[in-house]
Amino acid sequence: MMAIIPVVLCGGSGSRLWPASREAHPKQFLAFTGDKSLFQDTLARVRGPAFDRPIVVTGSDYRFLVAEQMRAIGVKGEIVLEPMRRDSCAAIAAAAEIAKARDPQAIVLVLAADHAIPDIKSFLDHVARGAAAAEAGRIVVFGIRPSRPATGYGYIRPGATTAQAGVAEVAAFVEKPDQATAETYVADGYLWNSGNFLFRATDFLGELERLAPEIGRPVGEAVAKAARDLDFLRLDPEAFGRAVSKSVDYAVMEKTSKAAVVPSDFVWSDVGAWNAIWNLADKDENGNAAQGDAVFLDAENSYVHSPDRLTAVVGVEDVIVVVTRDAVLVVGREQAEKVKTLVARLSASGRKEATENLKVFRPWGSYDSIDQGTRHQVKRITVDPGCKLSLQSHFHRAEHWVVVSGTARITIDDKVGVYAENESVYIPLGALHRLENPGRIPLDLIEVQSGSYLGEDDIVRYEDIYNRG
Fold first, then answer.
1. How are strands ordered across the β-sheet holding 359-362?
2. Is 175 exposed, middle or buried (0-12, 13-18, 19+ CB in 10 A)?
3. Where does 136-273 have alpha helices with state H?
4. Those residues with Cβ within 8 angstroms of residue 445's Cβ, 6 or more apart along the chain or in another chain
5. How far is 140 from 132, CA to CA, in rounded Å?
6. Rounded distance, CA 135 to CA 149, Å?
7. A single GO molecular function, which one (predicted)?
8. I want to staple 388 with a disulfide (CB 3.0 to 4.6 A). Which of 278, 282, 347, 436 is the partner?
9. pTM of whole model > 0.85?
10. CB neighbour list of residue 167: distance below 8 Å, 6 or more residues apart
């Protein structure tokens, strides 16, 4: 059997896991059950001789974060940038076109970047079953045997068995049910729709042309006209923008006669809300679980996410507490799905905490906001080894830099200096300047800004190796 090409869909905001997950740094890039992010865990599941280099489909805002997290675990692959969101079908179609160009007979495994599957061996056993059906021309979906009558998932009604062992035809896809209907579905042997797929690229694209040419044709054109930008492949925005926004279930899976399902027994979660994190976590004898520094007293079946500070909960049951540096969430476990509604309300009222983090990631590293007033702002800046910021200037602020650790090479107008730990430098208002890390360890420094305007848009870039505007 030829190597399978993994396709990882890496978009979405993960608002149900606020305040840890925000649009600027969504859940797929966060670690909830170990030291790797959900995205990195997804990539780790599809390493080895059975798999070819992955294709990751994401948005431009996440491109450097994707590249850095892939680099951190030693994975190389194609990073494809969507110009705008067009739901899952267009993203999958673009990846299928790229996979077909790599190998006309390519088998593609489509995975969401933000799902948790702890038992890798069992997962790979089910992929092998699905691959045999994909080679026979089927478009395969993985259907999870329900552990409970959940109302947050779509369901699949399996039909007759196919010629491939462990694979059934799809009799019907059904929408998310109410509680009573979900109980009936579970009793009748329905499966959760995991949203993960396996197929030959040519079979999927053929069905897309037949069933949804309003998606397939513009996406095909967007791939054909794609342009290279550093290590990324940018889909043509004009062509991609003409694709209809529709999920792959609506566009193809509910209409095709080639749909098949692998009834799957491996543990799976779409990590859709905080109660899902509690379900996945290791718990103490009272059913409590935590990530970070937490203390429980007379508490039961509760979860604390507090990576930056001690959080103590006393005398509570079935509660989730999430603590970040700028927000605290307290919610009943059974009400966790309502967090999405809360985030929408925060956004509508203009609260930046709804979407932005205090820690901001950049292609060269990151910065943390420590303190801010009307005419000053303090940041902690981390520059990765060998990286550098753009050559830039500011109209409205001056800056003071103090090196905390590592070595900084700093350009100020026509002078270049090297600064070590505990040394400082002043950047006058309007000066042309650049910060670089020439060393082999991260460079940490404290930046104090002062001036009449401190916004991130007060940056004029003259040279930028990351092709930012």
1. 359-362, 365-372, 376-383, 443-451, 397-405, 424-427
2. exposed
3. 179-187, 201-211, 213-224, 237-241, 248
4. 380, 381, 383, 401, 402, 403, 404, 406, 408, 435
5. 10
6. 33
7. GTP binding
8. 436
9. yes
10. 129, 130, 132, 133, 138, 140, 161, 260, 261, 262
Distance CA 154, CA 167 (A): 19
CB atoms within 10 A of CB 334: 10
Tell me the C-alpha distance between 264 and 166, whole Å: 9
Give me the phi and psi of 43, to 5 degrees please. Answer: -65, -40
**CA 132, CA 143: separation in Å to the nearest integer?**
16
The CATH architecture annotation of domain 5-264 reads: Alpha-Beta Complex (3.90)
Phi then psi for residue 257, to 5 deg, are -85, 0
* Ordered alpha helix ranges (H), 225-379: 237-241, 248, 274-280, 339-348
Token pair in block for residue 14: 């993960």
Contact between 149 and 179 under an 8 Å Cβ cutoff? The reply is yes
Of residues 301, 306, 359, the one with CA closest to residue 333: 301
Instruction: Name beta bridge partners: 4.
Output: 51
Give the pLDDT of the chain (469 residues) as one tens digit per residue.
579 999 999 988 889 999 999 999 999 999 998 889 999 999 999 999 999 999 999 999 999 999 999 999 999 999 999 999 999 999 999 999 999 999 999 999 999 999 999 999 999 999 999 999 999 999 999 999 999 999 999 999 999 999 999 999 999 999 999 999 999 999 999 999 999 999 999 999 999 999 999 999 999 999 999 999 989 999 999 999 999 999 999 999 999 999 999 999 999 999 999 999 999 999 999 999 999 999 999 999 999 999 999 999 999 999 999 999 999 999 999 999 999 999 999 999 999 999 999 999 999 999 999 999 999 999 999 999 999 999 999 999 999 999 999 999 999 999 999 999 999 999 999 999 999 999 999 999 999 999 999 998 999 999 999 988 6
How far is it, in rounded angstroms, from Cα 359 to Cα 381?
Answer: 10
Question: What's the CATH number of domain 359-463, 3.40.50.720, 2.30.29.170, 3.40.30.10, 2.60.120.10?
Answer: 2.60.120.10
- The distance from CA 457 to its chain's CA centroid, rounded to whole angstroms, is 26
Is residue 469 within 8 A of residue 392, CB to CB? The reply is no
The residues spanned by each domain of the chain are 5-264, 274-353, 359-463
The continuous run of DSSP H or E covering 95 comes out as helix 87-102
Q: Collect all residues with Cβ–Cβ distance below 8 Å to 28 and sequence separation of at least 6.
A: 10, 12, 14, 37, 38, 39, 42, 113, 114
